[in-house]
Fold this sequence. Notes:
Radius of gyration: 20 Å
CATH superfamily of the largest domain: Histidine kinase-like ATPase, C-terminal domain
CATH architecture of the largest domain: 2-Layer Sandwich
Number of helices: 13
Number of domains: 2
CATH class of the largest domain: Alpha Beta
Oligomer: single chain
Strand content: 5-15%
Amino acid sequence: MDKPRYGDDVEISIDLRFPRDAASVPAIRRLLDASLDVLGVEERTRGDIRLMLTEACGNVVQHAGSSGSYTVRVLILDERCVIKVIDHGRGFDPATITVTRAAATEIVSEHEPEHGRGILIMESLADVVRLSSLPDHGALVALEKRLSFGGDTLGRRLADAASADVPRDGVTPLTSDADVELKQFAATLFEMARRGRTEQLVTYVGAGVPVNLNNEMGDTLLMLAAVHGHAGTVRALAARGADPGRENDDGRCPLTGAVFANEPEVVRALLDAGADPRCGHPSPYETARMLGHAEYVSWFEEAAPSA
């Protein structure tokens, strides 16, 4: 499970969407490896991550059926790398490919990047592996790996600064020893979004909380405010940089959530913030047509005639 952090000095977020084609995997691998190389992550760790990423992409492509695209979402926080590979196809049964770590360690000695053993290799190399699937809405493979930096590298210096517990801009960074408190704090923020407590949320965002903070399902503060009908909160978060096109792990964007919840004021607020009626799977436009919301369809066609 992702662990939201508050006050980190090192944060890199990468969102990539590619067609479901094996040719996309080397490009994704090189992009991530280049980012890790710049930070000074040791080659052995980078090699593990390259292999993990290759197998995660291959697993989703193999088991999730036919779909147009898949997303790779990477979050690097200090000395931790979280990778989510999200397919927008039919999904799969995780029980059919889940194995134990003990079994995995017996077969990974060859380290064949392009001909690996899927979940077995991921289990042996990652600190955390999570598989989930929703029928007809896609599949998720989530991996977590602790990073190791070289001695005098950018990543090592920044990670050391982040762990020094020195106040920055009036905010005291929280360290890994405060994981329980961090989870509780993040849960409080998500509950504020659900309840539409705009003033409190805005105060925390102004103090340094990431405006696109997301929970373990990839739902951002904006998404939670949207599906619970809080147009004022949506407008306030969007005004402070919240991304109206950010998809959760199921491939849905906040505008799709607002259409499902039938919240016209929220739909209008998101459109005013620049939300794309074609974002996500299913898209807001597809969802509105499926549910028979003619008014939304009209709004979306006006906002994006080619939807």
